[in-house]
Design brief:
Order of helices and strands of chain A: HHHHHHHH
Helix content of chain A: 55-70%
Shape of chain A: globular
Largest interface: A-B, 29 and 33 residues
Number of domains of chain A: 1
Distance between the termini of chain A: 53 Å
Number of helices of chain A: 8
Number of strands of chain A: 0
Largest sheet of chain A: none
Structural class of chain A: mainly alpha
Radius of gyration of chain A: 18 Å
Oligomer: homotrimer
Chain lengths: ~220, ~220, ~220
């Protein structure tokens, strides 16, 4: 990923996304009254957990061990929450945009890294989705809650849709840069439009729940 | 495992087991009202989680990345639950048999793959058990429940018993095919007999629970 | 780590630490009325989970596959809990000391193994902390509780403090043996003093919780 290291703009987006992901973990940890260490671990797991899982499955060196920025960034996020605790609720929209930007970048990075390992594109879509969304699942497992992204509005599906856009560009023979741009834009737009218009995936109803919402004991 | 790829019968069993495992995850996810994406992820984690953990620990390529069948099969299981939701309860016995067949096959595959990596047979027994039973643990962690197989009737222990049968055949110098057949049959029979006669492992009592069930506050 | 294999004293400490970690997992599993298999798995995850995660991330062979002692030791811990269930509460102080010794040794082993892989020392501190403390997090995830070490007195932070001591010795050019001794002693002392004087890390307050503990609905 030498193109990332050479373009400062992408480093900034990477930092912003990591920061937003870590903030989301630390805020949920604070709602559970975890101490600073616990909050840091949950923040780090949210920010780098997805990429770590990806690197383990691809048998690649774990990315955050080669660059201390990610863990420093998580430390800054912890400081931020400690200092601006009372005002975080007013930064809600900013964090939402940062989070969506991070989701888009992490998806692109995950897909490209997977393809660079010689994997087919469908594995890339899965790994891109994992890079973007698995950190949030690990976060919810650590704070002992049902994973939010399995129940709430479109989040991981935005990565899947962006991944399909990546695959289409790939098949059409687009160059790397426009492919990345289109994939990231699709993830970002899918995510923000889904939240704006409250678009959700259908929910699976329990088996003893009939059509009109009445619970019948049949099991 | 070229013998698996060449024998269609085994591919069918593999598919049936994956399908039954995925169904079990998707049904539990639906009881928690997860959306389709969440149900798919829980189903996939149940079906391929154990084998993924095994491949990571053995430092082997993750099996489902090399063959798209497993994720397709999970998708079919999701469709099945969406379409036949009301009737699933009547397919209970069929799913139980499919699940036990899957447990047997996954154990055999896990042990053989571990031995092929040059590991001793006792590691093989652990990896075979992990291939068969760890997916169910990951499933229960994702839906935020205490793992069922740590409390209910014999499940993972059937893999251990089958693994010991594998080791005995191995030491006696049996060929690969009868060894696999005996191991699988022992897993299947142990599992089905345990459920039929409600055989459970002993439970550890809490430390403040005395012999006759009376709770004494000593701690 | 040939120095470990050649010095019996360290093997004894390793065994004692593994035993104490496994006991802690098995006791919590028994409070949840898990069966013997479930208790064994939770005990093993507590004792070897941290080191397993470390070895996966460092892309090293998983340590307990190369030496059956760790799983045997977990089996002995299960037997111990089954036999001495009623008296475990009286062994509280002994187990606490064993656990702190294990924490110290696991931290040292984790840091040294990471450095031997050519990683920088800050990765070593993280991996040492993971070796010592991640097993307890996996344990709490498996029994479906919020991780204790994210809320309670200094535990994982003792590994971090010991790791910083290791780094200082390393930078000062100390030999391996005194570096290990100082690191282990710092972990052990930090842990025991923190418990004796009930030293905790600050807790993050929820965002809707104002200074004097009154809950105001602002979110």
């Amino acid at each position: 990923m030498s193109w990332i290291q050479s373009i400062n703009f992408l480093e900034i987006i990477d930092f912003v996304g990591t920061f937003a992901f870590a903030i989301s973990g630390i805020r949920l940890a604070s709602a559970k009254r975890f101490d600073w260490f616990g909050a840091y671990v949950v923040g780090a797991a949210t920010a780098i957990g997805g990429g770590t899982l990806r690197d383990l499955m691809l048998n690649q060196p774990v990315f955050w061990m080669e660059n201390g920025t990610y863990l420093l960034c998580t430390g800054l996020a912890l400081l931020w929450v400690i200092i601006f605790r009372k005002n975080l609720v007013h930064m809600h929209n900013t964090f939402f945009v940062f989070d969506a930007i991070g989701l888009a970048l992490f998806t692109v990075v995950g897909i490209q890294k997977t393809i660079d390992c010689g994997m087919p594109i469908w594995v890339g879509i899965i790994m891109g989705t994992m890079t973007g969304a698995a950190g949030g699942v690990i976060r919810d497992v650590l704070i002992n809650e049902e994973p939010l992204i399995f129940r709430k509005e479109i989040y991981a599906m935005a990565c899947v849709v962006g991944g399909i856009a990546f695959a289409v560009c790939h098949w059409l023979g687009f160059a790397t840069f426009p492919t990345h741009l289109i994939c990231g834009a699709v993830v970002f737009l899918t995510r923000t439009l889904a939240v704006k218009y409250q678009i959700c995936l259908p929910t699976l109803r329990p088996e003893d729940d009939d059509e009109n919402g009445k619970i019948s004991k049949e099991s």
